[in-house]
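Reviewers asked in the last cycle whether our approach scales beyond single polypeptides. To address this, we selected a multi-component target totalling 795 residues and predicted its structure end to end. The input consisted of the following lines:
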Amino acid sequence: MDFHLEQNLSNLRNTVPLVHNITNFVVMNYTANALLAAGASPVMAHAVEEVEEMVSIAGALVVNIGTLSAHWVAGMKAAMVTAAQLGKPIVLDPVGAGATSYRNETLTELLDVASPTIIRGNASEILALAGASVQTKGVDSTAASDLSLEAAWALSKKFDCVVSVSGAIDVIVKGNQTAFVSNGVALMTKVTGMGCTATAIAGAFAATVADPFEAAVSAAAMMGVCGELAYRNAKSPGSFQIAFLDCLSEITPAHLAELAKIRIS
Amino acid sequence: MDFHLEQNLSNLRNTVPLVHNITNFVVMNYTANALLAAGASPVMAHAVEEVEEMVSIAGALVVNIGTLSAHWVAGMKAAMVTAAQLGKPIVLDPVGAGATSYRNETLTELLDVASPTIIRGNASEILALAGASVQTKGVDSTAASDLSLEAAWALSKKFDCVVSVSGAIDVIVKGNQTAFVSNGVALMTKVTGMGCTATAIAGAFAATVADPFEAAVSAAAMMGVCGELAYRNAKSPGSFQIAFLDCLSEITPAHLAELAKIRIS
Amino acid sequence: MDFHLEQNLSNLRNTVPLVHNITNFVVMNYTANALLAAGASPVMAHAVEEVEEMVSIAGALVVNIGTLSAHWVAGMKAAMVTAAQLGKPIVLDPVGAGATSYRNETLTELLDVASPTIIRGNASEILALAGASVQTKGVDSTAASDLSLEAAWALSKKFDCVVSVSGAIDVIVKGNQTAFVSNGVALMTKVTGMGCTATAIAGAFAATVADPFEAAVSAAAMMGVCGELAYRNAKSPGSFQIAFLDCLSEITPAHLAELAKIRIS
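The resulting structure, written as structure tokens, was:
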């Protein structure tokens, strides 16, 4: 399988997709800037009074539960229902899944109203989400990385969606397909919202790439490659977060394709 | 007409006006930092329980509808009523006007409780706002830029306020007066919240310049000139947003007056 | 008294404490990044549905009233009650105390449900908070700096907590102990949320240092020293805020201990 990274980023930049984000307070500014830098157009709107109209003019919906409260959950549900009806891609970030019952219950409610196109989280979030909705084979006999892969497969099958697990090596699964993206640097874990940004960028690719699996792989590669480029000049978290935005804007489609390290199994 | 940019910026910095912002989640940090850098003192408070007291100690009120919800609208209305009663300048940013019915209806409600001193938006927002509240002459026979100018004039007359339309060339109108500010760089459209920041800076000038038209022109010039200065050293959006804050702080009143490109018609 | 700064910062970084923040919209991104850079792990969660669970897995709770509204206050109270029951340190930032009745009343309510471990604010906030809850000896015969010291002592006695007053010289009091930290640069007042960041960093030290007085002094020293280091390369507010995050990450425990200027009386 070939992932057409060059063409996908070119298309994203030519299309300038509107990405509707219902996301958390911590990362809103950064993910909006990342979407702009990458070539998309962000809009943030959460009120139940307007999310249906907003998602109807957007190319994709990104839902992120980082800083939940009741009226935001109502907006998330309404937006997801409309997105599903209109066939718009939905990208879900289960931030902090497993940390509190409220997050777990909210995720169950959200997944009840519509299946996401892509779920993107870190290993512990994917494990928690899978644990809440599917049966895994138990922890004892399985290595952690195998476990999260198993959880990703289970989630993917249950919701018929792509599951993207961020880590030192990103793992993206859909049905029988599995891709590994081994770009990125450890410093990315020291900047808040890098995972949320990966989710937002997945929304931008999902709005412009027909195959959600390819969209998720393209987004993971874009994040990892730009992380590596930013790290060349910025070794500390403050300057890194700024350099990363610069790289999202400066990277050429050809350079992305050249630097991406993707393995399929 | 002469705009006294040097004196206006000096006054702003000597006065350090308190600017009360009820603004959106995406830009709050950036507009607060921009106000501080320019020489003002920002405060953010949205609860209906406290906005009346807060606006009463402020020099100006900035209302921005970027991320609406019902209890924020209640706070906006209460603050605008109090500001109008106390004669404090009100600057309104109709973010996303025209995108959803909820935004249009909220703008109608806000404009019903008090007329702003300055309305600042981009061309599509000003067109949408004018379309919702005044009759324009139709799109067919008029170029887009002429149309937004016509919309700005109509809004200005209807609400007896200054209307500032941001774009490659900013247009500021009040009654029969029209000013064009041709500073700025295209990269400003790739940083989230630059328009919201223009609105906040307009609030700072409105708090310290007697004539609202001159305040709006001064703010547009300050934004555009600092954009040009920042662009000298920062060509990508991450580093540009940081350089822009630096320039807001570093620019001297004399340098602002020297670099501003203002034309009156 | 010796403050073991080197060991305290080493412990913080080895422990990577989870700091639960219920803070304001303006600073959330920056304080999360500051906590990560310093070596802690931030989580933001405000909903009454989940704060009890969240605080139970955290090392400390930080409550900051910068952008209040009713359902956030409910979350703050629930979190403080749980933190007190579980013996977790609580750090309270009374942002804007004295500016509105709503802030004063909210602070009274919060202090009724649980005594904080550390209260950190600027002089006017500490004076307002003390004025609302204890009797000071009157303004006329006392210099301002003496007054805020008197207010800090009064608050410390009333709530049996540490009180940390930020300023050109930070003053930290607990019972009969008083420490003065004379690090820092004036430019810190031109970046929004530096005070809120001091509060968050105090939360990180409170989670990992047994003595709250020593935790508060360590946090004040960390902030001031990193401010001085950042200022070496960044003299304007935009670049300073980024350099400051870099310094929080780069500073070694030994360097912190070497540069801290602490006086005890």
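The radius of gyration of chain B is 17 Å. We regard this as preliminary and will revisit it once experimental data from Aim 1 are available.
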